[in-house]
Amino acid sequence: MDIYYKYFDRNQELDSLTKDNYLDDKFADYSFQKIHQSYLRRLNVNEYDLQTKTLIRNNILKMMNDKNISKYRVYTDLSLNPGNVNDYLANGNSKKVSMDVVKKIYNYCRNYR
Known about the structure:
The protein is mostly helical. It has seven helices and no strands.
């Protein structure tokens, strides 16, 4: 029960937290920093997803090049929308595909023989 109250009190402080007072000694507790990072992650989930998809795209393109996999092979074998997959892989438009689709493409390329 004590942990819940400790978390609840710190969660209320997140609204008043800024970059200036984040470095204050009052917020030096590691568990609070973890809570704050989780809060920021949830607040900016779309931005983090776009960054993650971009990093995964780089790995996918490397695997596709190494294993000689075409984009056509990827979207036909996985039954994906060709326009969105091509835009993601060729142009890096991460907004066109969901995280689930990116994971499917990554796992397909990783396990391709």
